[in-house]
Amino acid sequence: MTFGKSLFALVILAGIAAPAGAFAESATRDLKIEEANRKLVVEFYDRFFNKHDIAAASVVADDYRQHNPQVPDGKKPLISFFAGFFKDNAQSKAEIVRSAADGDLVWLHVHATNGAGDLGQAIVDIFRVKDGKIVEHWDVIQAVPKEAANKNTMF
């Protein structure tokens, strides 16, 4: 059962109205395009956030739309923001733990750290790709705690 179908079942059981078409299956998936999108994002992410290679932003659209409230929209503001961040945080790294793609969206599950003793953050980055360019980004960020209520890791 896919997430959409199981969510649909929960919505029906709870008696919640869903918008028309909200749970429709996508017509056909182009796995070659999805994999190309995933590879584009993974390569960008590694070069940009691990090697601090600002030139990696060549795959970001000029009118890039940003949903992280700390970073402005646009390719130039993205580069400017992170050029300053990388200068101040030369030890920052972002290990991609897993990645996935569906249509024009690419998800990365990331462990970001800023030096040897930093427990870091668990991040889920979501990118939208259009015509070989990264055009939009969302993220969810959570600090990695010193202690957890379970033996599982966040990765």
TrEMBL record:
<feature type="domain" description="SnoaL-like">
    <location>
        <begin position="41"/>
        <end position="137"/>
    </location>
</feature>
<dbReference type="Pfam" id="PF12680">
    <property type="entry name" value="SnoaL_2"/>
</dbReference>
<protein>
    <recommendedName>
        <fullName>SnoaL-like domain-containing protein</fullName>
    </recommendedName>
</protein>
<keyword id="KW-0614">Plasmid</keyword>
<keyword id="KW-0732">Signal</keyword>
<dbReference type="InterPro" id="IPR009959">
    <property type="entry name" value="Cyclase_SnoaL-like"/>
</dbReference>
<dbReference type="InterPro" id="IPR032710">
    <property type="entry name" value="NTF2-like_dom_sf"/>
</dbReference>
<feature type="signal peptide">
    <location>
        <begin position="1"/>
        <end position="24"/>
    </location>
</feature>
<dbReference type="InterPro" id="IPR037401">
    <property type="entry name" value="SnoaL-like"/>
</dbReference>
<dbReference type="GO" id="GO:0030638">
    <property type="term" value="P:polyketide metabolic process"/>
</dbReference>
